[in-house]
Design brief:
- By secondary structure, this protein is of the alpha/beta class.
- The protein has twelve helices and twelve strands.
- The two termini are 32 Å apart.
- The structure holds guanosine-5'-monophosphate and manganese (II) ion.
- The site of manganese (II) ion has 6 residues, from loops.
Length: 339
C-alpha cells in the first residue's frame, strides 16, 4: 500500500501538468519499457502531452510492444529531446534508483525544473534526485508498482489493452515469467487485474520467449558449450563474450538477454557472472540465489548496483581481468562480509 498523501500529491501533479516526460534507465529492459509505455498510454488518455525519452536504444526483441515507436532516443535526437525536457512540467523516472543510471541524459534530466517523481523497486534510492519517490523493493517490478499507483490514483478508467499489455510485459520479464521475485499474493492480484483488460497473455509469452532469431539461438549454444566456466568451489560460474565472438553471430542489442541465468540451472551453482565486451568496455550482469548479495559486489567492484540477486555494472578492465576481479570478490559474498 502506498502512502495516501504521496498518492494525492502524484495525482494532483498529473492532473495539473500539460507536458509529461517519462525516462527509464539506459539499456532499457522489459520492465523499463513496460512502465514507460504504459504510463505514456494512460496519461495520453487523460489528454496530456506525453513523451518517453530513452537514454539509448531499446532492444528489438521488444519491438512488438504497443507504442514502441513513440520514445525518442537521446543518443540519436538530443536536440529534440532537450527541447521536450525543457518545456515539461512533470518528469517521471522509472525503474532506476539513481540519476547516473541514465548515463549521458543525466545532466539534462537533473537540470530540468519540472517536478520530479521516481517510481522504482531497486534498493537504496537516491532521495535527493526526485521531489516525490515511490520506492518499494517488495514488488516484482516497477510495472507492478506503477499499476498499483495508477489504481490508487483512480486512473484505472484510462487503462486500455495496450497499457495493460505493457505493464504485464514488465512484470513477466522482471520475474522470469513468475519464477522469481514473485512470491507475494499481490503480484498475482496484479496479473489478475491486468487480464481483465483483454491482454493476449499467450501471444505476449510467445513474443517474449519463443521468437528468438536463429543467430541468437546459435550464440546461446556457443556460449553454453564453449564459454561457460564453472567454479564449483565458489558455487559460481562465469561467462565471457568478446566483441569478435558476438560479431560471429551478428549480435543485435538484447540477444544476450537472459544468458546470465543459465548457470543457475546447474546444481551447486548459486552465483553467475556474465561479462560482455561493449563499446570498448566490459558490461557485467550478475545473478545469485539466496543471500549472496551481488548488488554489493557490483557496487564495490563494477561501479554498478541492482537487486540482491540481480545486479549489473561496468568495467574498464579487459574481459579476463574483470573475471578475475569477480572471482576474487566471491568469497566475501559467500561469507556475507562486504562493507
Ligand atoms: P541486467 O543484468 O539485466 O542488465 O541488470 C540486472 C539488474 O541490475 C537490474 O535491476 C538493473 O537495473 C541493475 N543494473 C544493471 N546494470 C547496472 C549498472 O550499471 N548500475 C546499476 N546501479 N544497476 C545496474
Ligand atoms: Mn525492474
Amino acid at each position: 500500500m502506498q502512502n495516501q498523501s504521496n498518492i494525492s500529491l502524484f495525482s494532483q501533479k498529473v492532473t495539473d501538468s500539460q507536458h509529461i516526460v517519462i525516462i527509464p534507465h539506459q539499456n532499457p529492459d522489459g520492465d523499463a519499457m513496460g512502465s514507460s509505455l504504459a504510463l505514456h498510454h494512460i496519461f495520453a488518455q487523460l489528454g496530456k502531452q506525453v513523451s518517453v525519452i530513452l537514454p539509448n536504444e531499446a532492444p528489438s526483441y521488444l519491438s512488438w510492444m504497443p507504442g514502441w515507436e513513440i520514445p525518442i532516443d537521446w543518443t540519436k535526437n538530443q536536440q529534440q529531446a532537450q527541447k521536450i525536457v525543457d518545456k515539461c512540467d512533470l518528469l517521471i523516472m522509472v525503474d532506476f534508483n539513481t540519476p547516473k543510471r541514465v548515463k549521458d541524459l543525466e545532466t539534462a534530466m537533473m537540470q530540468c525544473n519540472a517536478f520530479k517523481v521516481m517510481i522504482d523497486h531497486h534498493p537504496f534510492p537516491d532521495v535527493e534526485s526526485a521531489n516525490l519517490i515511490f520506492s518499494d523493493t517488495s514488488v516484482s517490478s516497477t510495472c507492478e508498482l506503477a499499476f498499483q499507483i495508477i489504481t490508487a490514483c483512480g486512473f484505472t478508467p484510462m487503462v486500455r489493452t495496450e497499457s495493460a499489455t505493457c505493464f504485464y510485459t514488465g512484470l513477466i520479464t522482471d520475474t522470469g515469467a513468475l519464477s522469481h521475485n514473485s512470491s507475494r499474493p499481490e503480484t498475482y492480484q496484479t496479473v489478475a487485474e491486468l487480464m481483465r483488460y483483454g491482454i493476449d497473455k499467450d501471444r505476449i509469452h510467445q513474443l517474449l520467449f519463443h521468437s528468438n532469431s536463429y543467430n541468437r539461438m546459435r550464440l546461446l549454444g556457443y556460449m553454453l558449450c564453449e564459454k561457460m566456466k564453472l567454479l564449483p568451489h565458489l558455487r559460481a560460474a562465469t561467462i565471457t563474450l568478446s566483441e569478435t565472438e558476438l560479431a560471429m553471430f551478428d549480435h543485435q542489442p538484447g540477444d544476450t538477454e537472459g544468458f546470465v541465468n543459465y548457470p543457475l540451472g546447474i546444481e551447486g551453482i548459486d552465483i553467475s557472472g556474465f561479462f560482455m565486451e561493449k563499446d570498448g568496455k566490459v558490461k557485467i550482469s550478475l545473478r545469485s540465489r539466496g543471500n549472496y548479495a551481488v548488488n554489493k559486489l557490483s557496487e564495490q567492484h563494477f561501479n554498478g548496483g541492482g537487486h540482491l540477486n540481480a545486479a549489473g555494472g561496468e568495467s574498464s578492465q579487459s574481459l579476463a581481468e574483470a573475471v578475475n576481479t569477480f572471482t576474487a570478490a566471491i568469497p566475501s559474498i559467500l561469507t556475507g562480509q562486504q562493507d
